[in-house]
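From the shared-data thread, chain only:
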Amino acid sequence: MSAAQKAKASVPGSVNTPAPRVISGRVVRIGAGGVSLRVRGRAFAVTALLTGALIVVVGTTLTTGDFPLSVGEVFKALTGNGSASADFVVNTLRMPRILTAVFVGAALAVSGAILQSLTRNSLGSPDIIGFTNGSAVGALVVIIVLHGSMTQIAFGALVGGLTTALVVNLLLVGRGLQGFRLVVIGIGVSALLLAVNSYLVTRATFQEALEAQAWLIGSLGNRLWTHANAIGLALAVLLPPAFLLSRRLAMVEMGDTTAVALGVDVRRTRTVLLIISVALAAFATAVTGPIWFIALAAPQVVRRLTGASGPALLPSALMGAVLLALSDLVVQRVFAPALLPVGTATGAIGGLYLIWLLITESRKSRA
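Structure, as tokens:
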């Protein structure tokens, strides 16, 4: 090659130079340490809207009900300057419940987003595959058999969820995590665990059986600061590593071969993220009982809103928080004075969504 040809080849946009890859979004550099972040306008707008929606739902929950309060009265109660009645309503009754709803919704949504990305399957959700029922088995053993504390219930749920994940992985050895095979095996394991849950309830005393059955539906009633603090601490520990590994997660979603070529330790990344996903679902289940379809629906709705091809963990967390907090607000205000558990609302809406998703996936597989 002559010098003229070399010069021509080095000119951007020449015929011998590949066209540059266009990446949408704006790159924001943080400090002088070379740290940069690519911000997509559509994802940022969706995140901002979800944040605003969450603030509205939380504000409505705190100010409405049998004892209505103004925004000023709520603010005074939160800062310790309100009346005794307002302080009791806000800080004892409403705030722990709404925080528990926000934290549990976020935990379930991030758990579902991680699992759906790892399996590359929109049906890859902890409540479909059986991780939620596994966590429920561990929690029920502690509740009915061991009569344990909140900490012990959370530990039992974690052990049950991780054991279920291990069993599902053993059944899939050599077949990978993707495909409908995982969903079918997960549904079978989930059905078996549901039978175990029913057996545990039948072996309990009458009062324990009533409490366990109410817990199995999924409820935010009578939630105290103990519950809010427990799930809040779990999020503080588990969400940072999940967000840090989100870029690797997106690479793993492109396929093992591509991820390895990009320098990702696929096995270690998948193992760590799977443990985080199961732990988030387990702690959420320990606090409220199994709440269905938040983990399934929230990540998929976010992907459609943001147009993201990969996992969007932060918007998913906000979407899960909004969906669960809004569902709880509806069952409290619309169906009052009936005390309906929030699991009835998420189950009814989620069942319709699951039917639609199954039909969509079936059409895709035929195409």
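Residues 84-119 form the longest helix (36 residues).
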